[in-house]
């Protein structure tokens, strides 16, 4: 009797195994076997340890720093292409380099476009990601992009808090669209923070557009890096009369002294997904897993079903 192989397999880059294992469990298949050989100079080579000929492979890899994560994903895509995989879906919960989505000054690269071209050149036939820093990055690809929204997992948690006088806030003008989308579903007011930067990750001034007195505030953002913006916004809102300030950030980059800034700030809670692993645990940070969301959409893609029901924004 011929042994029948499953029509899809899930593999993971080395730094995303913690999430890929949960996705595979919820999908209903074991995580595929892949090894990573290292050379003494730091070069590495991934190898699939099982046949992937003629099937769809899902490669789970968040491309957070270092650049080795992106390089590992590119090598895995190339290996899958050369192993005759039928479809190669790059599942990138956190799409790194996305902040370089345009030329904001002369003589700089558009890094997000470059990464898109690298993924396609390597052989990816589909991209699946969540809460891109800029929606227009989807247009950098010539292949299908499934852009999922973490609001589908954050909104039930927000509703479970049963907060009175709820107000949604954006930490900057660029995030106002996201804040208004959340406010629409929650029936709340919106506050916008207007900030000016001296340089990247350094805020010079911040002002509030909207009323926060006597309100429970939830700041919405796609990522938190140094934590400076959210910490400053929370402190300013409490100073202006807010009852409490929470923050929802899909991707917890949390570089430098971000954890210390969060602890010292007036934020009562920071809610994030597990698209990026936390460097350490703290009582102020609540992690909501995105594994169910990705597993469900991967099932839908494999079975050629519509995924429009997973878009709340």
Automatic annotation (TrEMBL):
One Gene Ontology CC term in the entry: cytoplasm
One of the GO biological process terms: 5-phosphoribose 1-diphosphate biosynthetic process
Annotated keywords: ATP-binding, Cytoplasm, Kinase, Magnesium, Metal-binding, Nucleotide biosynthesis, Nucleotide-binding, Transferase
CDD domains with a match to the protein in the record: PRTases_typeI
Pfam families hit by this protein: Pribosyl_synth (PF14572), Pribosyltran_N (PF13793)
UniProt xrefs under SMART domains: Pribosyltran_N
Gene Ontology molecular function: ATP binding; kinase activity; magnesium ion binding; ribose phosphate diphosphokinase activity
Its EC number(s): 2.7.6.1
Enzyme class per UniProt: transferase
Taxonomy, superkingdom: Bacteria
Substrates-to-products reaction catalysed: D-ribose 5-phosphate + ATP = 5-phospho-alpha-D-ribose 1-diphosphate + AMP + H(+)
InterPro entries: PRib_PP_synth_CS, Pribosyltran_N, PRTase-like, PRTase_dom, Rib-P_diPkinase
Occurrences of domain Ribose-phosphate pyrophosphokinase N-terminal (ranges): 9-123
PANTHER family: RIBOSE-PHOSPHATE DIPHOSPHOKINASE FAMILY MEMBER, RIBOSE-PHOSPHATE PYROPHOSPHOKINASE 1, CHLOROPLASTIC
Official protein name in the record: ribose-phosphate diphosphokinase
Organism of this sequence: Flavobacterium rivuli WB 3.3-2 = DSM 21788
